[in-house]
Here is the input.
Amino acid sequence: MTPESPWPGLPCGCTASVAMNGMGYRLVAPAQATTDAAGRFEISGAPAGFGRMMCFVKGYHAPMGELRTVPAKDVAIRMSQTGSIWGKVIGGVPEGGHVNVSVAPEGGERVGQWGGSTQVERDGTFRFDNVPPGAYVISTGLLLPDREPDAKARKITVTAGQTVEVELPR
Here is the structure.
């Protein structure tokens, strides 16, 4: 399998294993490898069936790979440079309280797209790293796919290699 990656030493693996009978299962040992100087890798030990191929490197994102037949040859994993979100919740964090910040793709379908949430620090700050470029909604309220974001939510655009700074009211 050959990812399109210029980085030697990149960790890659096969996840979401599915047997030939269609039943999912956990691997006894990780099916993983490290890329060579040319960005190529071979995952040995992945059982026959189906799996998702993934690679990981800070500052880059590879979308969840499609379910592929295993064994496979010449699988290309395309990674894109990511950005970051740094922010602060205005209005403070309640004494001993917890404030969460959620990020979701703006509008439309969210299944299979990047999103996440985190608890803010005591000083009200938060950070999301390795965010794929795109338009997002960020809020201290719940971001549910079938509902409009709360009135305090903000729209932001993440750009590769950049950090978006945002202030959120609590």
The two ends are 47 Å apart (CA to CA). The CA atoms of residues 107 and 147 lie 10 Å apart. Residues 11-81 form one domain. DSSP finds no helices and 13 strands in the chain.
